[in-house]
């Protein structure tokens, strides 16, 4: 493995600028190499939503349906489906002859088990599956979902975030957190998992029995693991890596990638990602809403957008991204007004003490997350002006999860979150009190507001889009008034791939997921 | 009876070699710059501006970084962090090293055995690796960095001092002091310590250089304290822009190189002079 890396480097060392990738492709046209930022703790889409976990497990699994580049739902494991006129019964007709990577046949029992026992119980987005009353498998090719009430966003959820189908014969009766197949995933997806060497790479091989004939076009897929952003981008520039996307592509690098020749840079049309901090609202002084609002008046979010995400970020007013049809345009932003922030902090009984400092704010972030660190540096300056001392605390992934989400020893902790094509999927999870758990990507502030909980339940059963929008408007108003989270900005997920060999890699919503790898093709094929 | 004690050798040396003078000049230049930072720096090193990634010009002599901060000011203040960490961790290293070296060399026997085995254990530790692990676990802060670097860099000093003390212990003036009734503590502090002091000058100087290197290594891996950006930290921040904003890596790198070369030249010079002086005594 080492020798292999060295020889690749050697080959590229001579002419890095000379479209190195094409040289590599000539030698090995059917291998595609991507990159992720860290060792994925799990390779299991049903129980983990961390970006590295999602990316690393996406090529292995399938779902009943999927969402295409335009946001339309198409079939995956399900060939077709019927929805009853009352919107409460979904019948999925599954493909014939699909097998698991271990050779066992895939049946409706696998889908029933994965949705009912894994996704509904353990998925961080499981709130989106709450309407499901029962899941039946009347015959091996049919799955029937009965809902308590109609749910507008159900197909989106099943296709993208909470619908990964895992093999029942390997998961039934096991403790999902300890199942060895979390690190050795078996699915029905276009690629089979081959090996994982921590800190180095994950290797996948083509699934010869993939249910779409002739796909995938690549014989081998590799994800290199490179935590350092500069090293990662250097590897992409040198052509050691063919594609880099999502949070592995630092926002600060976008202008440079845009200038690179032979590189296709895309942004997801449907999905936004936010840089968003949880505020620990159980901790004094952040339990006081005036203190939280003071943060909004003191922190220069426009400067963050312009300096950390130049030409990329959109303003975020409220919890729902502005590209969503459910976004409440009537919300007003908190104006940048340090004097107002000072007044609010005085009012909250937090006078300046020695050295003009009112209190400390522990800001936790991943040590490899460059954007989060820069946001922290901006914030430290902005908040110093109103007497809040920011303690910048970079932590490695494991320590961060332990400190922030398990022990809740933070005042603000920041991550980038996919906000989903529908707020039921990507936004509700942060604010519904039924989603408070000691893991990341759920309601970690944790925010409890019975009215908001009730409104989430009400909108879910609304079939009239206008009425649903009205309820969502109200939710946004309340959340924006209570501010349990701090959305810095949002942006479309970026992805970059060398055009010299692959096309169609980033044509879908969650760039890229299993279908991208399945349908991408080497150039000229 | 009057007993003439040999004076520490350093102070009666002939003129220093050119390389040493260059070293001292470099160090003086850097130290002066960082000490005078509040007077020289055109801006607050943390102050943000919309002048993002501006190349060097009249307003910003060394350009600005990705948050519009003035790089010249950041380099000046970053020097305080780098030199401070270098100095304090070298002090810790030298203090521990001298303590252990004196005790081992003077008392000998079982104490010497025990202390030297411990020194060997520390000597074979992969220092940077241990520092990375410890700082990752305890968190990035100036204090943690100083302690870790200091406590991992005393072994060479301990060995040098021990050897020197073992030689001194057999000298006639020590025997004379003992015969005239001086206690062991008095002999150690009044007669032996002053005579190993010149060796410390060289070893401390070299350790400062080593500590600054270690710190920039830690910072370069993203383990520096972001509240107090050192030169290594600036380098790490700048490397992402190595092809678009050359000034972000060039100037902190130059400062780092000047300082380390300066301390090394100075330390080497002092070490050689001390050797000459030692022979003459």
From TrEMBL, chain A:
Entry's Gene Ontology molecular function annotations: peptide transmembrane transporter activity
Keywords: Signal
A single BP term in Gene Ontology: peptide transport
Domain Solute-binding protein family intervals: 73-436
InterPro entries to which the protein is assigned, alphabetical: Peptide/Ni-bd, SBP_5, SBP_5_dom
Compartments where found: Periplasm
Source organism superkingdom: Bacteria
Keyword Signal listed: yes
Keyword hit for Cytoplasm: no
GO cellular component: ATP-binding cassette (ABC) transporter complex; outer membrane-bounded periplasmic space
Family: Belongs to the bacterial solute-binding protein 5 family.
Protein name according to UniProt: ABC transporter substrate-binding protein
Protein's organism: Rhodovarius crocodyli
TrEMBL record, chain B:
UniProt KW keywords: Cell membrane, Membrane, Peptide transport, Protein transport, Transmembrane, Transmembrane helix, Transport
Any Gene Ontology biological process: peptide transport
GO cellular component, one term: plasma membrane
Cell compartments where the protein resides: Cell membrane
Regions crossing the membrane: 20-41, 83-108, 128-154, 196-224, 244-266
InterPro entries on file: BP-dependent_transpt_permease, MetI-like, MetI-like_sf
Topology in the lipid bilayer: Multi-pass membrane protein
Residues annotated as domain ABC transmembrane type-1: 79-267
Main location: membrane
Source organism, top-level taxon: Bacteria
Family, per entry: Belongs to the binding-protein-dependent transport system permease family.
Protein name: ABC transporter permease
Lineage: Bacteria, Pseudomonadati, Pseudomonadota, Alphaproteobacteria, Acetobacterales
């Amino acid at each position: 493995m080492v020798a292999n890396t060295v020889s690749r480097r050697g080959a590229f060392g001579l002419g890095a600028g000379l479209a190195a990738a094409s040289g590599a492709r000539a030698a090995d046209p059917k291998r595609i190499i991507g990159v992720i930022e860290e060792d994925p703790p799990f390779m299991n889409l049903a129980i983990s939503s961390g970006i590295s976990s999602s990316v690393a497990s996406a090529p292995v699994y399938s779902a009943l349906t999927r969402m295409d580049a335009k946001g339309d739902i198409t079939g995956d494991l399900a060939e077709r489906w019927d929805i009853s006129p009352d919107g409460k019964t979904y019948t999925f007709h599954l493909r014939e002859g699909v097998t698991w990577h271990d050779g066992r046949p895939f049946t409706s029992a696998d889908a029933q088990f994965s949705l009912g026992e894994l996704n509904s119980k353990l998925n961080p987005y499981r709130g989106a599956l709450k309407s499901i009353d029962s899941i039946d498998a009347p015959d091996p090719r049919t799955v029937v979902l009965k809902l308590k009430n109609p749910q507008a966003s159900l197909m989106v959820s099943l296709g993208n975030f909470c619908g990964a189908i895992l093999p029942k014969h390997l998961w039934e009766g096991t403790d999902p957190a300890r199942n060895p197949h979390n690190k050795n995933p078996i699915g029905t997806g276009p690629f089979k998992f081959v090996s994982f060497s921590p800190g180095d790479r994950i290797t996948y091989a083509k699934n010869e029995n993939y249910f779409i004939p002739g796909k995938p076009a690549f014989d081998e897929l590799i994800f290199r693991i490179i935590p350092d952003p500069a090293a990662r981008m250097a590897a992409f520039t040198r052509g050691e890596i063919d594609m880099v996307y999502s949070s592995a592509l630092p926002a600060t690098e976008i202008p440079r990638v845009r200038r690179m020749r032979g590189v296709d840079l895309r942004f997801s049309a449907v999905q936004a990602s936010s840089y968003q901090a949880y505020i620990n609202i159980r901790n004094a002084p952040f339990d006081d809403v005036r203190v939280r609002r003071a943060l909004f008046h003191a922190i220069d979010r426009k400067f963050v957008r312009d300096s950390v995400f130049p030409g990329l970020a959109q303003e975020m007013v409220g919890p729902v991204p502005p590209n969503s049809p459910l976004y409440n345009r009537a919300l007003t932003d908190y104006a940048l007004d340090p004097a107002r922030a000072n007044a609010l902090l005085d009012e909250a009984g937090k006078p300046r003490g020695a050295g003009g400092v009112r209190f400390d704010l522990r800001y936790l972030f991943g040590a490899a997350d460059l954007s989060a660190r820069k946001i922290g540096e901006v914030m430290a300056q902005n908040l110093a002006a109103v007497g809040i001392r920011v303690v910048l605390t970079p932590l490695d992934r494991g320590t961060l999860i332990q400190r922030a989400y398990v022990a809740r020893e933070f005042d603000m902790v920041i991550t980038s979150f996919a906000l989903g094509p529908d707020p039921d999927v990507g936004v509700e999870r942060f604010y519904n009190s039924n989603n408070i758990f000691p893991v990341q990507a759920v309601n970690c502030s944790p925010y409890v507001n019975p009215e908001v909980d009730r409104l989430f339940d009400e909108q879910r059963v609304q079939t009239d889009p206008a009425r649903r929008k009205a309820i969502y408007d109200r939710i946004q108003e309340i959340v924006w008034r209570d501010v349990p989270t701090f959305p810095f900005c949002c942006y479309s997920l970026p992805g970059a791939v060398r055009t010299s060999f692959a096309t169609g890699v980033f044509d879908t919503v969650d760039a890229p997921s299993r279908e991208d790898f399945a349908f991408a093709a080497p150039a000229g094929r | 009876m009057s007993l003439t004690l040999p004076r520490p050798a350093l102070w009666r040396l002939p003129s220093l070699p050119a390389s040493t003078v260059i070293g001292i000049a470099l160090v003086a230049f850097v130290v002066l710059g960082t000490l005078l930072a509040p007077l020289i720096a055109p801006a607050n090193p943390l102050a943000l501006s919309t002048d993002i990634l501006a190349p060097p010009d009249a307003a910003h002599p060394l350009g600005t970084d990705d948050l519009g901060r003035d790089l010249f000011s950041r380099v000046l203040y970053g020097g305080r962090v780098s030199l401070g960490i270098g100095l304090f961790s070298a002090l810790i290293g030298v203090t521990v090293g001298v303590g252990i070296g004196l005790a081992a060399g003077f008392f000998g026997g079982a104490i010497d055995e025990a202390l030297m085995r411990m020194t060997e254990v520390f000597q074979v530790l992969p220092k940077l690796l241990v520092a990375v692990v410890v700082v990752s676990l305890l968190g990035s802060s100036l204090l943690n960095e100083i302690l870790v670097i200091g406590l991992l860099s005393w072994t060479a000093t301990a060995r040098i001092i021990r050897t020197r003390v073992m030689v001194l212990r057999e000298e006639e003036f020590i025997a004379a002091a003992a015969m005239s009734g001086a206690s062991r503590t008095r002999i150690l502090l009044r007669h032996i310590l002053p005579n190993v002091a010149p060796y410390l000058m060289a070893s401390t100087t070299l350790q400062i250089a080593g500590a600054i290197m270690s710190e920039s290594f830690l910072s370069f891996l993203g383990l520096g304290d972001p509240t107090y950006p050192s030169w290594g930290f600036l380098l790490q921040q700048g490397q992402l822009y190595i092809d678009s904003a050359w000034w972000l890596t060039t100037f902190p790198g130059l400062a780092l190189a000047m300082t380390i070369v300066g301390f090394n030249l100075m330390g080497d010079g002092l070490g050689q002079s001390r050797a000459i002086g030692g022979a003459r005594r």
